[in-house]
Amino acid sequence: MSGTVPPLTRPSLPLAPAGEEWEEAPFWRRWLGSPSAVAGGVIVGAIVLAALVSLAWTPYPPLAVAPAHAFARPGPAHLLGTDNYGRDVLSRLMAGSLTTLFAGVVSVLIAAAIGVPAGLVAASRGGLASEGIMGLADVVYAFPALLAAIALAAAAGASTLTAMVAIGVAYMPVFARVTRSGALQVLSTDYVLVARSYGRSRAAIVRRHVLPNITPLLIVQSSLLFSLAILAEAALSYLGLGTPPPAPSWGAMLQGAQNYLFDDPLLAVWPGLAIALAVLGFNLLGDGLRDVLDPGLRARR
Amino acid sequence: MTGALEVRSLSVDLGGVPVVADVSFSLRAGERLGLIGESGSGKSVTALAIMGLLPEGMRAGGRVELAGEDLVSMGERRLSALRGDRIAMVFQEPLTALNPLMRVGRQVAEVLRIHRGLGRRGAAERALGLLGRVELDDPAGVARAYPHELSGGQRQRVMLAMAVACSPRVLVADEPTTALDVVVQDQVLSLVQRLADEEGSSLLLISHDLAVVARMCERVLVMYGGRLVEEGPTRDILSQPHHPYTAGLVATAAAVSSPSGARRPGSLPALPGSVPPLGRFPSGCVFRDRCWRADRSCEAVPQLCGRDHAVACWHPVGEGAG
Amino acid sequence: MFAVLAVLPGSPAQVILGTQATPSAVHALSAKLGLDQPLWERYARWVGGLVTGHLGRSYISGRPIAGQIGSALQVTGPLVGLGLVVGLAVALPLGVLGALRHRRPSGVAISAASQVGIAVPNFVAGILLIIVFAVALHLLPAGGFTPWAVAPVTAIRSLALPAVALGVVEGAILSRYVRSAVLDVLRSDYLRTARAKGLRPAQALWRHGLRNAAVPVVTVLGLEVAGLIVGAVVVENVFTLPGVGTLLLQSVQNRDLLTVEDIVMMIAGVVLVVNLLVDLSYHLLDPRIGARA
Description:
The structure holds three protein chains of three kinds. Chain A has helices at about 25-35, 35-55, 90-125, 125-140, 145-155, 160-185, 190-195, 200-240, 250-260, 265-295, 295-300. By secondary structure, chain A is mainly alpha-helical. Chain A has a single domain (about 80-300), classed as MetI-like fold, CATH 1.10.3720. The model of chain A is unreliable at about 1-25 and about 295-300 (pLDDT under 50). In chain B, the strands form two sheets. A seven-stranded mixed beta sheet of chain B has the order 6-7-8-3-9-10-11, sandwiched between helices. In chain B, strands 2-1-4-5 form a four-stranded antiparallel beta sheet. Chain B has two domains: about 5-85 and about 165-310, P-loop containing nucleotide triphosphate hydrolases (Rossmann fold), CATH 3.40.50.300; about 100-165. Chain B has helices at about 45-50, 75-80, 95, 105-115, 120-135, 140-145, 150-165, 180-200, 210-215, 235-240, 245-255, and strands at about 5-15, 15-25, 30-35, 60-65, 70, 85-90, 170-175, 200-205, 220-225, 225-235, 310. Chain C is mainly α. Classes of the chains: A mainly alpha, B alpha/beta, C mainly alpha. Chains in contact: A-B, A-C, B-C. Chains A and C meet through helix 5, helix 8, helix 9 and helix 10 of A and helix 6, helix 7, helix 10, helix 11 and helix 12 of C.
């Protein structure tokens, strides 16, 4: 029966290798293709820039008090006006961005430093260790982060550091979970099986295969947690439990401005805007990075 | 001659990219017609276009006539009245095609409530009868179950009960047994055949499996790259395929079923390359980049030619092609 | 948590009496408050109190903590409830509409709006609301609270802005979950089946989609309620409402640790119970989960 059918040979027409056009576009092009990533990148970039510039230069010293110039309207002398002590709002916002970024970085680093190893151990050991770690993570996760920060501030006193520690510990479970599920996926692949079969140690497999593969996941998660950390730091400063005055922080600026809402509402608008913009920026960046780093990621999650 | 379903120049595009192009065929009354092709050939999209259930972003053109009415241009209200009543469909994956949060008895009864205006109790009773007709052992027990509590075969029988509830003129079955075990596959196919006969429904059976179509259908349409490339009586197509693609398919099926060729089940040793992704088919004859007979004349689109056994190819295999 | 608070430096007695107090005075006060007893004994008494509702007396004011929390709850409870209502009123229509129109400009606009809504913290939203409705329009009070017994209408008016500040932000977050749940349903095979049976699109979504979409939404609803409760702590301070959050903040500032512990544990307990309820309702909604359990 099959003899009556001529064998199909190689195609006579020149063929582009299958899927060549489908190869991934370069990283920056995929970045530019995602509106979220572009918008988030611009906002975050602007904040980082403002923070860096503030290290060397601000229009006025952010802590300089000038009662004569209190409540100045926005104008050429003070672009965003001055507050009740006559301090330049723009300068304080710029300096505050440094506090915000610093709080975000430290919180995310604390969360990652505990969460990632815990997730890796849970994934590669399994069994009792895994259940213990993830169980503990669940308990910590159920405890609201802001509440933990308030309690810690009550016990240890309010400071940027206590706020960051509390936030970092509270978000540690997010890293542990993401790391574990990502690592489990990698560990179940065939190439890990192959690596295992010729005797690579568990640590080597984690270093060579698991970590590189889950890095995109962790970067995306870091960006999203960053925005949560900024939010929490701002809330704590606003409540007077974060960065203590007179150091410039957006939350504390908002708190100070609230007393003068009827006199100068703009004073509250600027830091509020800054906080919202920063949170928006890191959220967009995280969403965008998710698309840029791994288009399949969104579908899986 | 007007069949139960007349498809005329049906086309579907997805954002300007053609998914199905210029498909015409006629499903005669009481006939069992097979539509065969690899995944990505556009056969499922054809079925959904006929039902007016294309996924978001896809648009259909051309005509699909059911008893003289064009389904493609029809309004949603009228179309809804026909679906499930005059034209019904069975889907490939019964687990996801059934509502996971609703007892299956209610899901079957719902068809009767929509189209026959039955009350809750009357519809439930009729649904029990239907579940019995699709050879489910314990109709009352099945009716009370949720989809996840049933086996794959049971679920597909439930889908069939829903589809034939109103004795449709046309029954479209899209890979109805692909998700099932081999033994169950066989039972469900027999059931589909028996139900279509009893209800007087014409069957359009979509499958990638030549053996399934050979067993069930009198006539076969072969689809590749969103176009019909060959059409004819099943027996002729199997013994004397004219289109190089059909020939490859038949050879592959033969190789897989023979002991010597059974070493690599699932692979298609006779067909070089693979189905290109959507929008990457060549111009002209869609198969020419994988065809050993292709030359410059294939840069023009061949039409489906021939009366009983038709082929769309500039260089058909064997003799007797139109 | 108790352990953390007790172990960290700064004895409550020291705080109460100030840094100038003599060690003997500190010691005497500690003895009076029962702080000189071993840690585990204090812990056991405290847990026992939590269970029986005897939360002890404040280290600072000496008043029973349970009573203080009770009156604060009369503000916080309605605030969280109203916030949830506002949140659902924002999230459900926006989420469903956003899913139905996700490819059209109006759907994209809804998505963008919710993205912005998520980014505005509730205390910022609260201050903006004060600026608009209290400072500019003089429609609603900027803060303060009249007890229910005195003037119920005024009480509602003082809760209106806080509830909106709280609810709109949580609603924006929730709307994204609603949107993706409805989108999943719209793309599901069973909805296609429902339409193949002859249901019109809206009927199919109503009869087959809503319950399926509810399952993932209810899951996050638990998290949202937790977010509302914690959010209330902050928002109460924006509007100077005498609720649990304000009491908590005052206690933190006074280092009234026992009150802090009680409130923190109470909130954590409520969050736990809400999560339990969500788990239960989840089982009722989805028969597949009951089968696996």
